[in-house]
Amino acid sequence: MNIGIFLIVLVSMFWGVFAYKKKRKAQLVFIGTYRFNSVIKKKVANKYPHLTDQDLMLVIDGLKDYLTICNQANKKQVAMPSQVVDVAWHEFILFTKEYQLFCDKAFGRFLHHTPTEAMKTPTSAQEGIKRAWRLACARESINPIHPLKLPLLFAIDAKLNIEDGFIYSLDCQNTSSATNGIGYCASHIGCSSGCVGSSCASGDGGGGCGGGS
């Protein structure tokens, strides 16, 4: 390959990377600033009549968080960890044309609905929920292995007292916690194996902490 062709290929590669990053940034801005149909909040309120308008705005924030991490997951499955946010997502999908246009701009493809998914057991997580946990933690600058708080998507069902919601306990060893002994142990989500207490055991060789792909 002569130097001229090499330079053309090199410039094309750099331009392709630049264009891709610019597109992804525009998608994230679009999701973050999107104004959802007001009917979505009304439908969520019909199912959960105890929610205030402020609560419903938090649900919409949770939906934006979920759609954002779906964009960041590069077409890999991301489990929906919240029942109330899942209801909002389902109502959004019912506006079929609006949802299709949203997906085109936000993902460049149609994002199919993934049912809510919790952990298999209180201390065993599957890949979809691990990915949701890692990306949600990164979005809120939370250490996924030693979290000091729960990201919104994992906290919202308990925060809003969603009767059929998924409850995640931050510190499973804290017997004074309101969620002690119920729900799922969030501190185990970031561990693929060897979890002890609220942290990850080291030196397990292959898996270690921060499981998921």
In words, what does this structure look like?
Residues 192-213 have low confidence and may be disordered. The strands form two sheets. A two-stranded parallel sheet has the order 1-2. A two-stranded antiparallel ribbon has the order 3-4. It contains seven helices and four strands; from the N terminus they run αααααααββββ. The longest helix is centred in the first third of the chain and has 31 residues, at 3-33. The chain has helices at residues 3-33, 38-47, 53-72, 83-93, 96-106, 127-139, 152-159, and strands at 168-169, 184-185, 195-196, 199-200. The chain is 49% helix and 4% strand. It has two domains: 15-106, no CATH class; 127-200, no CATH class. It has 213 residues and is mostly helical.
In short:
The protein is mainly α and 213 residues long.
Number of helical runs? 7
Proportion in helices = 40-55%
Provide mean pLDDT, rounded. 80
C-alpha geometry: globular
Find the count of extended strands (DSSP E, 2+ residues).
Answer: 4
Radius of gyration: 20 Å
List the helices and strands and how they pair.
Blueprint: H1 3-33, H2 38-47, H3 53-72, H4 83-93, H5 96-106, H6 127-139, H7 152-159, E1 168-169, E2 184-185, E3 195-196, E4 199-200
Parallel strand pairs: 1-2
Antiparallel strand pairs: 3-4
Helix pairs in contact: 1-3, 2-4, 3-4, 3-6
Keywords:
213 residues; globular; 4 strands; two-stranded antiparallel ribbon; two-stranded parallel ribbon; mainly alpha; 2 domains; disordered C terminus
